[in-house]
Amino acid sequence: EIAHWYAGGGRERHGDAVHDRVLKDVAENLALMHLGRWQHSCLYMKHIFVRVTGEGEATKVETALIDLEKCRQRLTAYRAASHDLKQLRRHSSFSATEWEKLVYFYETAFGSAIKGL
Asked: How far, in Å, CA of 70 to CA of 64, rounded?
């Protein structure tokens, strides 16, 4: 779980650049799901998994969303995103700065995908 990664010193061990990549990967996964009009419906920190392997330039970041059994399709991507992001914000331990970065990466991924359609 991402909370365990933070508690285990993942951010301190790998540094800010890798931490930003974790937030970016989470944001891209969420944007991809929402662009398909899928809403997680129960998005908490415990539903976000992260794996960081390697060191330095070879560091690899992987994130995944779990507990997708409550997912449902919404009429619009915006409605799916609105629900999940509000819920994640309420139930997350992200600092204000971390949340701002996550939202920035999310908006970038969401907007880039829409422009590519």
From this structure: 16
